[in-house]
Each structure stands twice: as structure tokens, then as C-alpha cells.
């Protein structure tokens, strides 16, 4: 009898021992963990902002207790979404500008700016989002009507891709742009020798210098407005592709005080002042901020014909686009960054720009391991150049660019080059990983549009019926990884986010429907019903 009691004692103790306490328990979920070997789970426990257990509902409820328990009722739950390339601060600033996205004509632009100025008159007028490719007459606008309406204040209207301005005459005069302005890194568009008001790439910086600098209160409001928009869509980390020191330091200070919660992977804008400061300081890493990369511009955009091509544009004789950073400058910068701890992330759209970047990377990274340098956009690539991505270079792409550009991309590139454009599957096969983003506010913030464009290769109207260049569509699993664990890997953050895994931050999203099984046409209608950052509900 004594022996039986002794044998039963451990069983009794195991059954009666107290559960481990947690700050949050979530159960009854259809959960995609992104953990190798355990892709699905039902429940998890969170303590101090991190996952401490992941498993079945029975296991988690048996082992953990919490004052806060959420029954998800079978809803789909995924890791927090990472936008691998966007302009977070720019999105906030855009809330203070005339919204020109979706305008169908220049006349509609004029109507919007007239209404905006009547409601909010000021000493200057800014707008963003026009795209002449959406108009019946697909030609750049000119400044005549702006000059008539606004002869006494500068007007600066930014194209949707951020690579062209339409400005009025007073803006040109204040910036000193005239017949003698002929930059190598862009174009002052002229007709019969007269400035039209359209500026592509390089000369845009001359305009930027005459615009008023937002005060601190405006900068803070912009960041907080951007955060609210992003949380609403399920984003928990944003890669801001180009920030100056003052904004990075402001983000850090707001995060430290709790006035900004969003996690930010900040790419430092490529300027001498920024590089001298950050390369000397080294990597800056907190729970919510990661500063360890530099954003470089190789060329301009395809929509404004600023992308640098090896052969002339098919729809503009003799025009090749332009490099913003020359091959010599690119190589020198790559060598400097290779000798630092910083990652190099370079905007490359045209096939000429892409090969300049890839060759510079290869030379600078010789003998160096695990640097994870990225090509941002990697949009048009010569067939022979895809192999460069087998050497540890990560493509960071934006699927909605393909479905926005498909109407006119072949006109720009011709039939021979178009197969190497927006080639996401090919890039993934070469690189073994791919990071996905939106480039908002160039495209919409909505990550479910990203998912749909990657998988279906269609626009929101379902065009084309069979998808655009479906050989380069991604699977749903690949797309989800590109928005979570692969994006985290591209940021050197795969050990702390990107999957629902013990030890990682409890960043997760509860979806309206199952993103992996819902019908293809319903993907764009998905929504983030609840969003959590470090176990805290932020939406």
C-alpha cells in the first residue's frame, strides 16, 4: 500500500500543480505560425510582450492562466505584417497635401487643388498622386493652368511614384530652374525649348530646397497619423525607405515615450551628413527601432521614363532614362558601406540600373558573409543577370507595381524586355527568399492588395482574366512568408519577429477570413479585425 501511494504521489502533484501565469492567452484560433515543422497551431500564451508557449488550445489552457483570455472563435491569425519597403513618414506628410491619387484627367487635378486651396489657403500648395498613364491623353501635363490660377504662390504636384513634379512658374523661378538647367541625373522637360513645369528626378531636389520645412509638431502629427493608418491594415513593422537623421531621432524619442508604438526599420537616406553620422555611430537597435541600412537611388521610375535602360525606351526614341547615382559613385559607396556594419538597399528599376547595382554589390561583398544587401524594386532585369541574386542578394519587391504598371509597361520596354520585368518567382528561385512591400504612398497601404497582386497578378477589377505574366506569380505560402518571416530576415530580425514562435515579440493579426483558403477574388476585401503589438491591442 505504501508503495502504491508513493507511485501515485507524482501523478497527483502533476494534476494539482498550479498553472503558469501569463499576461495574455489566445486560443481557438486558425493560426498560421510560419514556424518550420509546426505551420499551424491553435493557441499561445504571452508574457512581457513575447510568446512564451505555442500549441493546441488544450495544451495552452491546461498549462497557462491569465486574467486576459481571448477566444478567437476559429478566426484566422497570422504574424504581424511587415511592409518591407514603404515611406511611413511620407505617408503622414501626405495627409497634409492635396490627394491626387486616382485622378482621371488633368482637369480633375485642377478641380481638386482649387477646392483644397479654397478650404485651406496658404503660402504654397502641395499635392501628390497624379499619374498621366491613367488619363485618356497619356502625356505629361504642363504648367499653364497652374500659372493662371496660382501666379503668386508656388505649386508643387508630385507624381504618384515620387519621381516627377509638376510645378508652376513661380516655383521654377524660386528654385532657379531655367534654360541653363540641364542635369545629368534627371530631366527638365521642355517643349520647343520652353519649360513645361515637369521635372524628373534630379532637378526635383532644387524645388525641395524652396519648400518650407515642417515644424516639430507637424512632423509628430505626420508620424502618428501614419501609424494609425498602418495599424488599421495590420502592419506592425514598416521599413521606411529613406529617412534623415532628424526624423530617425524623432521616431526614437517618440517610441521611448510611448507616443509612437510602430516598429520601424529605418533606411538612412544617402547623404554625406547622414553617412558620416550613422556609419561612425554604428547600428542603432531598440525594441522598436532598427537603424542599420542605407537607402540609395540607382535611377528613376519607369512610369516617368526616368528608369535607366540598356537600350532606348520603346515608346521614346533615343531616350534611355538616367542614373541618379553613377556607376562609379555606386561602386565607391558600396565599398564604403561594405567596410561598415550597414546594409546597402538600392532602388533599381531599369535593367541598366540593376546591373550597375548588382556588379557593385558583387565587388564590394567579395569575401564577406551574410550581409543581406537588398535591391529595392528589382523591376526590370536582363535574363542573364538574375544569377547575381544567388550570391546572397535579396530582392525587395512590391507586387502591386506589376498590376499598376502592366497597362503600359510593355509600351515602355518592348516585347523582348517585358519577360524580365516584375519577375517575382524568378527572383525568389534565384535568391531563395524575397521581401514584399507596397512602396506606399506610391501604392495603397493595404497589404491584402499586395497579397492579391502577388498571387493572382490582377488589378482590383480582376484584369486580366488569366493574370499578368503568371509564370512569376507567387504561391500563397510564399507571399505570406514574404510579408512576415522573409521580410524579417531581410532586416536581420528573424530571431525576434516574423513568426508566432516562443521568444519572439507577440505581434499578430486576427483576420476577417482565412487568407490561405478564401477565394482569390475575395483576397482584396480581407481586413485586419484586431492587431496586437507586443501583446497589446493597437487596433
List the helices and strands and how they pair.
Elements: H1 2-16, E1 20-21, E2 24-27, E3 30-35, E4 38-41, E5 43-47, E6 50-55, H2 57-63, E7 64-65, E8 69-71, E9 76-79, E10 81-86, H3 88-94, E11 98-99, H4 106-119, E12 125-130, H5 144-149, E13 155-159, E14 164-167, H6 169-175, E15 186-191, E16 194-201, H7 204-208, H8 216-232, E17 235-243, H9 245-257, E18 263-269, H10 272-281, E19 284-285, E20 289-297, H11 327-338, E21 343-347, H12 351-364, E22 374-376, E23 394-397, H13 399-405, H14 409-413, H15 424-431, E24 435-436, H16 447-456, H17 476-482, H18 485-490, E25 508-511, E26 528-533, E27 536-537
Parallel strand pairs: 1-7, 2-8, 3-9, 10-17, 11-12, 12-13, 17-18, 18-20, 20-21, 21-22, 22-23, 23-24
Antiparallel strand pairs: 2-5, 3-4, 5-6, 9-25, 13-14, 14-16, 15-16, 19-20, 25-26, 26-27
Termini separation comes to 59 Å
Instruction: Please summarize the sheet with the most strands.
Output: 9 strands, mixed
Q: Please work out how many helical segments DSSP would assign.
A: 18
Structural class: alpha/beta
Principal-axes geometry comes out as globular
Oligomeric state of the chains in view = single chain
Unreliable spans are 1-16
How many beta-strand elements?
Answer: 27
Mean pLDDT: 95
